[in-house]
Amino acid sequence: LKNRRERSSWELANAENRGAFINRLNHDWASILDIKYLEQIPRELDTKQRVQEALLLKDSDLCYVISHYDEWDDQLVEYKTVFKGIYGRGLATLIIHPSADKLYLETEQEVGSPKRFLGKR
């Protein structure tokens, strides 16, 4: 939705407001991302290897990261490096392939393991 895109772009472009976007990514990710483009990974299929296979990403593919973790946030990093660093840590991270047609979302852990999603166009 246009208003979501504009608000998100504004928040992400401004260092002072970036935290508001990341906070929503942690607590209300569905208000940011369009659920019709996301597929929740079933718990029984949720492994690092299966996620990588489903995204069709190479270890060396560069990805843009939006994350609660400062060491990864607003970085362009190899998929293998960032995925290994954030997987299962418990706070929200969004990994976006530069083509913008593939993404991985790990939500904040509340009860049990965090929900994880694949996004594709």
Strand elements, count:
6
Compute the number of helices.
4
Spans with pLDDT under 50 lasting ≥5 residues? none
Strand content: 15-25%
Spell the H/E element sequence. HHEHEEHEEE
Strand order of the largest sheet: 1-6-5-4-2-3
List the helices and strands and how they pair.
Layout: H1 2-13, H2 15-27, E1 38-40, H3 48-55, E2 62-67, E3 75-78, H4 79-86, E4 93-96, E5 102-106, E6 116-120
Antiparallel strand pairs: 1-6, 2-3, 2-4, 4-5, 5-6
List keywords for this structure.
121 residues, alpha+beta, six-stranded antiparallel beta sheet
If you had to describe this structure to a student in words, what would you say it looks like?
The chain has helices at about 1-15, 15-25, 50-55, 80-85, and strands at about 40, 60-65, 75-80, 95, 100-105, 115-120. The protein is α+β, with helices and mostly antiparallel strands and about 120 residues long. It has a 6-stranded antiparallel β-sheet with strand order 1-6-5-4-2-3, sandwiched between helices. Strand 2 (about 60-65) and strand 3 (about 75-80) form a beta hairpin. Helix 1 (about 1-15) packs across helix 2.
